[in-house]
């Protein structure tokens, strides 16, 4: 049976791709190329305790979770130390949303990139 086996990528519209790639590189440590692309290979970083997963989820049109109504997508980036990264982003003048959330899946926090896109930062719970 033909089926989907994983998320192939997340793509964002950008007014200035090179500038936005530099922002993701400098502030979040995403190893973006100069052209604004990166490929993560989960097998390179997976461990027994942290196997590495990517989730796709759909939300209602009127949700506030993703950000402003014009924002059609939201990146969820796995992080290894949410409090430290949030503090680093604040120190760099990045807009960091004040609320965080703890759940069975781990800890979540949010920031906003220079083009107004809300980004979810996720420190996974053990075993995720």
Automatic annotation (TrEMBL):
Boundaries of every VOC domain copy: 6-124
InterPro entries assigned: Anthracycline_SecMetBiosynth, Glyas_Bleomycin-R_OHBP_Dase, Glyoxalase_6, VOC_core
One Pfam family cited in the UniProt record for this chain: Glyoxalase_6
Record-linked PANTHER family: GLYOXALASE, GLYOXALASE-RELATED
Protein known as: VOC family protein
């Amino acid at each position: 049976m033909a089926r989907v086996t994983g998320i192939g990528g997340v793509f964002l519209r950008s007014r200035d791709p090179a500038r936005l790639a530099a922002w993701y590189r400098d502030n979040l440590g995403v190893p973006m190329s100069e052209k604004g692309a990166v490929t993560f290979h989960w097998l390179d970083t997976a461990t027994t305790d942290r196997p590495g997963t990517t989730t796709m989820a759909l939300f209602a049109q009127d949700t506030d979770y993703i950000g402003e109504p014009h924002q059609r997508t939201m990146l969820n980036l796995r992080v290894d130390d949410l409090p430290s990264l949030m503090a680093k982003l604040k120190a760099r003048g990045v807009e960091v949303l004040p609320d965080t959330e703890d759940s069975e899946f781990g800890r979540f926090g949010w920031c906003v990139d220079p083009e107004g896109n809300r980004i979810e930062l996720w420190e996974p719970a053990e075993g995720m």
